[in-house]
Automatic annotation (TrEMBL):
Similarity field: Belongs to the chorismate synthase family.
Pathway, per record: Metabolic intermediate biosynthesis; chorismate biosynthesis; chorismate from D-erythrose 4-phosphate and phosphoenolpyruvate: step 7/7
Annotated PROSITE patterns: CHORISMATE_SYNTHASE_2
Self-association state and partner proteins as the record states: Homotetramer.
Catalytic activity: 5-O-(1-carboxyvinyl)-3-phosphoshikimate = chorismate + phosphate
Gene name, Swiss-Prot/TrEMBL: aroC
Name by which UniProt lists this protein: Chorismate synthase
Keywords: Amino-acid biosynthesis, Aromatic amino acid biosynthesis, FAD, Flavoprotein, FMN, Lyase, NADP
Tree of life domain: Bacteria
Organism: Weissella sagaensis
Pfam families for this protein: Chorismate_synt
HAMAP family given in the database record: Chorismate_synth (MF_00300)
Length: 392
């Protein structure tokens, strides 16, 4: 499985092409739109989420709501393009009239300046920010929605939620009271901050409100969990085949993510081996299993069969309504940075995007290991593999 996205933040369309999805998977526009709506909702989002109503059009690769095995083409229209049609028009040359709203004062923490240097966009840094904008993640969530449908057909579930915003941190030990991810999802999706409790939700909303009043932005941490993943996905043989490394790359590849950890993560650095390693047990019904999950479901770059637990750190958004120090790229004079319409925090959306990326990498790993032409054959092979692993 592989995919490619294209589109600019204020361009007419966002598009994606996915290759490698087996034939026979039922997928509808509503399945994808449900995930797109989750990305748009969340406390702290900005005015663009009011302008846009993200809905997908399935352009190819699906007939009568069932995948054909051929490349799948997805399209999401940018409603906000109506206000930018002349400025972003790809079919007419630049003029004084259609070259307004230039960006000449790069924002600290954004791709503006370095991207301008790299691609020689010295005349207008909008050429950088239009693609580097997190608007592109709408298509990663769309691709992730397809990946989640595939995983669900194999009894694999993935969910992401918010574990902290600014100084407010959830007590993750409370996760043990949930029997499955469906129970957790029913709770976290009910809160505007996608947090675990009503108290966390209220405290996080208060932080976001105060941050907005300060004309500032705030970051946080999101946690992704996956159940039903069979042991042995990934490989220890070469570094680039380690599945935890692929997931780490996918998470840090999301806009504004600056760190990733698995299981106990960085806290494991303060402990001893006897406190961190997941002891091995065996039963006739389960086969081999671990007594704990400090390593987040991975050993040697491979899945262990335990729940996958991944956390990603999201930095505050670099667009501040009280702009920071910058320099005009034309005059080289000191100026305050440019201001674009933005969110106070995108952590609530980041949980959905990171969930999509984990689903994509898990789907890739499954499709790398088994026959990918037909869903029914894939299901048969995965079931046989699970039985083989249980009887090892």
């Amino acid at each position: 499985m592989r995919y490619m996205t294209a589109g600019e933040s204020h361009g007419p369309e966002e598009v994606a092409i996915i290759e490698g999805i087996p034939a026979g998977l039922t997928i509808t526009a509503e399945d994808i739109n449900e995930q797109l709506a989750r990305r748009q909702h969340g406390y702290g989002r900005g005015q663009r989420q009011v302008i846009e109503t993200d809905t997908v059009t399935i352009m190819a690769g699906v007939r009568h709501q069932v995948t054909l095995g051929s490349p799948i083409a997805l399209n999401v229209h940018n409603d906000d393009h109506n206000h930018w049609a002349k400025i972003m028009d790809p079919n007419i040359p630049a003029t004084i009239e259609n070259s307004t709203r230039k960006v000449m004062r790069p924002r600290p923490g954004h791709a503006d300046l370095v991207g301008g240097m790299k691609y020689r966009h010295q005349a207008d840094l909008r050429n950088v920010l239009e693609r580097s904008s997190a608007r592109e993640t709408v298509m990663r969530v769309a691709v992730g929605a397809v990946a989640k449908k595939l995983l669900a057909a194999l009894d694999i579930d993935v969910h992401g939620f918010v574990s902290n915003i600014g100084p407010v941190k959830s007590d993750l030990t409370q996760l043990t009271k949930y029997q499955n991810l469906a129970e957790l999802r029913a709770v976290t999706e009910n809160f505007a901050t996608r947090s675990m409790t009503a108290a966390d939700d209220q405290a996080m909303q208060a932080v976001i409100d105060q941050t907005k009043r300060n004309r500032d932005t705030v970051g946080g941490t999101v946690q992704m969990m996956a159940t039903g993943v069979p042991a042995g996905l990934g490989s220890y043989v070469t570094a680039d085949e380690k599945l935890d490394a692929k997931i780490a790359r996918a998470i840090v590849g999301i806009n504004a993510f600056k760190g990733v950890e698995f299981g106990g993560g960085f806290d494991n650095a303060d402990k001893y081996g006897s406190q961190v390693m997941d002891e091995i047990y065996w039963s006739a019904t389960r086969g081999f299993y671990r007594g704990a999950n400090h390593l987040g479901g991975f050993e040697g770059g491979m899945t262990t069969g335990e729940m996958i637990v991944v956390r990603g750190v999201v930095k505050p958004i670099p667009t501040l309504y009280q702009p920071m120090q910058s320099v005009d790229i034309d005059t080289h004079e000191d100026h305050r940075a440019s201001t674009e319409r933005s969110d106070t925090t995108a952590v609530t959306a980041a949980a959905v995007i990171a969930e999509a990326m984990v689903a994509i990498e898990l789907a890739k790993a499954i499709l790398d290991k088994f026959d990918t032409d037909s869903l029914s054959r894939l299901q048969e092979q995965v079931a046989a593999y699970r039985e083989e692993i249980k009887n090892f």
